[in-house]
Design a protein that fits this description.
With about 250 residues, the protein is α+β, with helices and mostly antiparallel strands. It contains three helices and nine strands. The termini are far apart.
Length: about 250
């Protein structure tokens, strides 16, 4: 028995252990689980992105901070590109306008521009404008009677009706040029006389005036009226168109 038991022990120690038939199945399952776990881990970011996109569209869940920052950066980049395009277009337009230069118009050589009165400045207007007025009185300048106050004369003798009168002529240059008095014609009851050589001066500058008194006229009051007409003609010293003025004075007695 001892020998047989020893031999049994020896056989047991030298014999290869028996293989469990369930081990290959378990190993295959473990490998399959490892592969499935790897595929799930790899697909997890894609599912997270899908969840973030779905929640951002539907509004069921707030988008993450990273997605918001990414969207804002995209919008900012688009806005920057648009601004750059606008700046380029504006610079091109400005360059084309400045390169074309100012528009210069040249008048026709056959025509000359004539300035109108409305377009000329007051200092550029060269206007000949004169005024002549008549005044009449009897007596002296301190004790005078206006010719309108004279009474008719019923005296038999004609000499008693003869009354010396003073005729005053006022010249006033209201224009913008200095003038020369070229003609001063006076008509008294149909008697015509040119008094230009009796004037104290024939030059009257712009803005000036003077009075000439003629005391050589004698009025016959028996005629019943006095008619005086004064005509003056004036020429500018600087050249240009001459001017004239006329004044009348009439008195009827009776």
């Amino acid at each position: 028995k001892e020998a047989s038991g020893k031999s049994d022990k020896d056989d047991t120690s030298t014999r290869s252990p028996k293989r469990d038939p369930s081990l290959p199945v378990i190993a295959a399952r473990l490998v399959e689980e490892d592969e499935n776990r790897g595929s799930r881990d790899q697909a997890k970011p894609d599912r997270e992105q899908e969840v973030v996109f779905a929640t951002a569209v539907t509004g069921d869940e707030k988008p993450s901070l990273s997605s918001l920052l990414r969207d804002n950066r995209i919008r900012a980049a688009i806005a920057l590109v648009v601004l750059i395009l606008i700046a380029v277009v504006v610079s091109v337009v400005v360059t084309q306008r400045s390169s074309s230069g100012p528009i210069v118009t040249t008048p026709s050589p056959t025509t000359t521009a004539v300035p109108t009165w409305a377009s000329m400045a007051p200092t550029q207007l060269q206007v000949c404008d004169m005024s002549v007025t008549i005044d009449c009185w009897v007596g002296t300048s301190l004790n005078r009677t206006d010719c309108f106050e004279l009474a008719p004369c019923n005296e038999t003798l004609e000499d008693a009706c003869m009354t010396p009168i003073n005729l005053a002529y006022t010249f006033d240059n209201v224009g913008t040029v200095d003038n020369s008095i070229s003609l001063f014609e006076v008509t008294v009851n149909d008697d015509v006389e040119d008094l230009v050589f009796k004037l104290p001066t024939t030059r009257i500058n712009s803005g000036e005036s003077f009075i000439y008194v003629d005391d050589s006229t004698v009025l016959n009051r028996k005629e019943g009226y006095l008619s005086v007409m004064a005509l003056g003609e004036f020429e500018p010293f600087q050249g240009g168109s001459p001017c004239m003025d006329l004044d009348e004075f009439e008195v009827y007695f009776g």
